[in-house]
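2024-03-11 09:14:02 DEBUG pipeline.ingest accepted 1 chain
2024-03-11 09:14:02 DEBUG pipeline.ingest length=427
2024-03-11 09:14:03 DEBUG pipeline.predict start
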Amino acid sequence: MEDKSILLIVGGGIAAYKCLELIRRLRERGVDVRVVMTKAAQQFITPLSVSALTNERVFTELFDLDDEREIGHIRLSRDADLILVAPATADLIAKMANGLANDLASSVLLASDKPPLIAPAMNPQMWLNPATQRNVHQLEADGARFVGPETGEMAERDEAGPGRLAEVPALIHAIEEMTASDRSTRARGSPGPLFDRHVVVTSGPTHEPIDPVRYIANRSSGKQGHAIAGAAAKAGARVTLITGPVNLPDPDGVKTIKVETAREMLAVTEQTLPADVAVFCAAVADWSVAEQGDQKIKKKKGKPPPALKLVANPDILKTIASRKKGRPELVIGFAAETENVLQHARMKLKRKGCDWIVANDVSTETGVMGGDSNSVHLIRTGRHESWPELSKEDVAATLVEEIARELASTKRTAANSKSIRAKVDKR
């Protein structure tokens, strides 16, 4: 990123303090950073502290005669290689989505000739509110890219969920990723077979708490799901990856949302719709504990271990596949089996109501769980294909090719039907 120029727009919120560390890290990498601060942002960090780190003046007012004479908000938006909005509050996201320009930050964004990178930070309920999600979807459709939010404890007491500003390393990675992705797109000169399609992918395990220390989980590394998300992005899709806890970097060019439990994963998945394709690769725990312990459950001498009452988790695949409104055009599930793989997968295809099932044998001796290769069966109604053992990246690339072919075929069929109807109407 050396010699790059970044315009950082700081919104109001307690997470604004992270921007000071971000600026320092970017400056260490030789990045020129200019900063616009909203009035609300100045309640959390001062323009003086920001200016000391950037060695640049901080821009705060739209109708500042000196600022307009020196650079102007139009040039301010055009001179940067990348515009980063962090933290992006619900208010700032709403302004961007609806084209408002009543302060310097929103005016700069509206006058920009490039898509922004947006790092949301807000209360979980504000993030999950349908109004905010509509605004996010609109911005994504307009070409904006998102990093975060992350899931965790909020500044407010007893508040937790998706809404934390991405940490500084993740922000820097997203900046590098976005500049690299833009260069790659220009070099290819082709939008890709999934261009203008929205693909949702779930990945990794879920963690269902027993107490603050222990949890129920599945043995999923997330490698296959993350590979699918990355392959879809390379094919030109706008990708939302919803992942449980994994030790993997976020795929390039992908909006990644991190969750822990099955209920969180379902809630976020529903909020990301509408989508053209949904690929449910996550190993979601089937059960959670009915009553989670507030404190660590202690062993008691001479006493039997405590009985854990389990309740069923929501069935994410079936819930999305059976939607009457907003169902993705193509819903794909995964079946991780240890015996009778094809038989169980066909039953799952029928039971869940999805379009395809990708089935694999995850017996211990296969090494699939946590490994780098996979051998899968692609099952559709009335037929199936068995693929040879491939790397998980190659499985992902092959699956994305199949998805692109299916969507293209459906589009051609719809176009032909429309043409036939038009001819009949003329008669």
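2024-03-11 09:14:41 DEBUG pipeline.report Residues 191-293+300-415 form a domain with the Rossmann fold fold (CATH 3.40.50.10300).
2024-03-11 09:14:41 DEBUG pipeline.predict end
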